[in-house]
Amino acid sequence: MTVSANTAISSTSGARIVIVDDDPGVRELLTEFLVENGFGAEAVANGAALRDRLERRECDLIVLDIMMPGEDGLSILRSLMHDADGPGIIMLSAISSEIDRIVALEMGADDYVLKPSTPREIMARIRSVLRRRAGTAARGGAISVGHAAPAPTDCFAFAGWTFDSRRRKLTAPGGAIVAVTETEYRMLAIFLRDPQVVHSRENLADLTGRDNPHCNDRTIDVHVSRLRRKLSVNGGDEIIRTVRNRGYLFLPRVEARVA
């Protein structure tokens, strides 16, 4: 199944959006609104229909409802996360508990929107995610995070790992490619640019989630925890340390190379 979003989006207008929701009213309302505002939007009712759609054509972003009969949105999200270059994903849910938002973010969602929400708000969230992804693709894989971003030709080595920013590729010591989300990629770029420096949660939130009004200390903790787990996949030395009341410290020495 191809779900690649590897073509740079020069503008959010015209981006290919797929809405997945079992409510036909939501599908119709949101699709119509997005089309009227220049998006290539279409809607499907469930995970099976989504997979059929992705087999036929790529898309840039999926708006995915969580509470659906049969296969729920989190199960669909989990299946999509196998593709490191897949489309952006925004979760829709009537569930407002913090734990559900955290679970969705930990699984790789780019954003989480509570129902009821207006089509205009959802469109704003879509544009925000697409801008971040377009910034990555336009720079050949480099993330735009201000002064903390590595140069497009930079390649970093640390603790047996390598990170190729041009190809958006993180390679484990054993040679396996480890998939990272957009936010994890931005965060790793910050740590590698300034290793062995304590980065406050506020600074990380500003540099990785400045387009997302819901990026806060708690969501930064979630993303750091997820990145830390991926970097400890081989049971090696500690890489990211929590510094109480201050933030996070990237421990290894980093060697910058030209890819």
Q: How would you describe this structure to a colleague?
A:
This protein is of the alpha/beta class and 259 residues long. The protein has two domains: 16-138, Rossmann fold (3-Layer(aba) Sandwich); 154-258, Arc Repressor Mutant, subunit A, CATH 1.10.10. It is 37% helix and 20% strand. It has eight helices and 13 strands. The protein has helices spanning 24-36, 47-56, 73-80, 98-106, 119-138, 182-193, 201-208, 217-231; strands spanning 16-20, 40-44, 61-65, 88-93, 111-114, 154-158, 161-164, 169-171, 177-178, 198-199, 240-243, 247-250, 255-258. Strands 2-1-3-4-5 form a five-stranded parallel beta sheet, sandwiched between helices. A five-stranded antiparallel beta sheet has the order 9-8-7-6-13, with no helix packed on it. A three-stranded antiparallel beta sheet has the order 10-12-11. A hairpin with a 2-residue loop joins strand 6 and strand 7. Helix 6 (182-193) packs across helix 8. It is elongated, with a radius of gyration of 18 Å.
